[in-house]
Amino acid sequence: MIQRLLPFFTLILLFAALSIASPHFLTGTNLSSVIRQTAVINIMALGMTMIIIAGGIDLSVGAILAISGLLGCMAMEHGLPIVAGVVAGILVGMACGLMNGLLTTKLNINPFIVTLGTMGIIRGSALLISNGLPVHQLPKSFSYLGEGVLLGVPFVLWVLLLCGVVVHFLLEHTRMGRYSFAIGSNPDAAFYTGIPVAFHTTAVYAIGGMLTGLAGMIESSRLMTGQPTAGQGYELQAIAAVVIGGGSLRGGEGSVIGTLIGAFIMGLLANGSDLLGISPYLQQAIIGAVIILAVFLDEVRKRKLMA
What is the pLDDT of residue 102? Predict the structure, then answer.
């Protein structure tokens, strides 16, 4: 029980420590900046939560974010309305996720290998389509998605909360959610009990791709550009958010609340490092170390349960 609450306590302690360490931390401008910066990783991590719970992993989410944002922005550049461009980006993400799910289930290949390969394919495709150049000519009102304010709160926070509620409902109150936990815990047992493992695994990857596509459009809105090189290293942060929040890389465990807490812990670490003048290179090392520590603690907990 204590280990389950550890991410929550860590978030509170980190928040308190940064409040003391930097006078700029608790300003409205800075807190809004933290929310906007972490929203993209948060939304990606929600999709990754479903994938990891089902016993998979997706190393291609950074590339999916890039190609979704790029093609969504290209659609708007060619005259489509903003809403249609955002929907296009989300559908591109879903198509990429669907490809990952089908390759994993139909070819029976380890998802680590599949998504490592598609990461290169998708990233290369984004660079080929754009000739390595970003898309700049976008409607000014598109910036509202990433930078707008609704009822005094950053608009992306409302989007994040909506995504969190939907994913929580899917995991906790639908057949897909129950099957995802069962597949992640023991795929063979799930198959022999009549669960359509391939279908639900593919569906989970497609949903993860949709959320990543949405995150790609938010990222493009914040930068007001469709960048084919966007999202590099984001897969590490999305996986870290799930693991820090109590998800297990073995599958069968994870929660929306835990993932959101994990993502905000990383967001506060990055923001605090910037405020305190800590090198961004060190931030990457810290994220890697935190993943190892979180997986180690998960392994220790499982050994105790088995003993």
Answer: 95
**Does 235 have pLDDT greater than 70?**
yes
Q: In this predicted model, what pLDDT tens digit does every residue of 23-38 receive, in sequence order?
A: 888 888 888 888 888 8
What is the reported pTM?
0.90
Cα–Cα dist 86/47, whole Å? 18
Q: Is the pLDDT of residue 2 over 60?
A: no
| Structure confidence at residue 3 (pLDDT) | 57
Report which residue type is found at 9: F
E strand intervals along the chain: 149-150, 153-154
Query: Could you tell me the domains of the chain?
Result: 2-298 (1.10.3470)
Half-sphere exposure of 72 (CA within 13 A, CB side): 35
Residue 286 vs residues 10, 20, 203, 240, 241: alpha-carbon distances, Å: 15, 21, 33, 11, 13
Cβ within 8 Å of residue 106, ≥6 positions away? 198
Of 256, 233, 242, the closest CA to residue 59 belongs to: 233
Residue type, 13: L
Residues forming a β-bridge with 149: 154
The DSSP H or E segment spanning 76 is helix 61-77
* Pairwise CA distance, residues 40 & 37, whole Å: 7
Say if residues 52 and 184 touch (Cβ distance below 8 Å): yes
Q: Which two tokens stand for residue 193?
A: 């009990």
Written as one letter, the residue type at 222 is R
Q: What are phi and psi of 153, to 5 degrees?
A: -125, 140
